[in-house]
Amino acid sequence: MTTPIPKERFDACAAEIAKATVPLYALSQGKLSLERSGVLFRVAERHFMLTCAHDIRKHFIKHKLPAYIGRLTEGASPLIRLENCPMVRIEKNCVDLAVIELANHVVEQLLPTNRFISIAEMDLWAVTCPACYLVLGFPSVDTTMDEAGRGVKTLGLWYVTVLHRGKLNPYSEYNPDIHLALNYGREALGQDDKPSSVPHPGGLSGCGIWRVSNGENWENWKPEDVKLVAIQHRYDGQRNYIMGSWVRLAIQMVWHRCAELRPAMQIVFPGQ
Predict the structure, then answer these.
(1) How many distinct helices (H) and strands (E) make up the chain?
(2) Is 210 left (phi over 0), alpha (psi -120 to 50) or beta?
(3) Considering the domain 7-260 in this protein, what is its CATH number?
């Protein structure tokens, strides 16, 4: 895949997106495992993490596994335990989304290294279009515990890709009003600027799908044009594609559950 955007611009975009992306871990029988990725966002003075919903009920509700998130650091990241963090989720009608409100003590530990995006950095009216997309998350294959056991080092992965034009798994129940399907594999452009086989995306579930550009007016393109449009939740290795749910469905969850935030949300999300 070729693109007229210089790679250094992608690097700059990925660096900003990484600040708003975190890995989510579960602790089971003394063993820590990377469960998924998530995107940090805020509405007024409230802070949330947006991720996928599948297996959340089994791991964190039914089995009550302790949950942790990692901070953006160069070395091993000290983990932050998620406690007293209310969660809402959708796991029906093919929607796979969860919104976790973060307690103040979690937010305070994240703010020195990470950032929370605003709704203005999302495109809540996005539709399937032949755009250029950047996907960034934390694959489990690049997760290691530091030697002293004080933290976890997880390497982020980002790649640039386009709409998937091939056949979809008939069991995926793809619905363009809910989903976005993108290439994953040889057609993806990774950090080395060469089309390559990217690693197995286990752990990327819950990460953000960001529209870099709609392919028009490249000369006037700027980093502020990058918008979060969907949350990745599915991977099909046989057909080399990933699928995500539109981010507006998650923001609608916040709208319906948090009436006190509607005045702030209505500035960029009117009429909902």
Answers:
(1) 5, 15
(2) beta
(3) 2.40.10.120
More confident residue, 21 or 9: 21
Neighbours of 215 (CB within 10 A): 14
Which candidate, 272, 244, 269, places its Cα nearest to that of 128? 244
Find, among 141, 139, 143, the residue nearest to 79 by Cα: 143
Residues in the chain: 272
Tokens 């890709």 map to which residue? 161
Q: Which of 205, 179, 165, 182 is nearest to 94 (CA)?
A: 179
78, two tokens: 């000290």
Cβ–Cβ < 8 Å for 47, 102: yes
List CB contacts of 223: < 8 A, sequence separation 6 or more: 9, 12, 13, 16
Tokens linked to 104: 């103040």
pTM of the model: 0.88
Could you tell me if 139 and 202 are in contact, meaning their C-beta atoms sit under 8 angstroms apart? yes
The whole-number pLDDT of residue 37 equals: 93
How far apart (Å, rounded) are the C-alpha atoms in residues 227 and 122?
A: 5
The answer to whether residue 73 scores a pLDDT higher than 90 is no
Q: Are strands 87-90 and 21-28 parallel, antiparallel or unpaired?
A: unpaired
Asked if the model's pLDDT at residue 61 lies above 70, the reply is: yes
Place of tokens 């070395």: 75
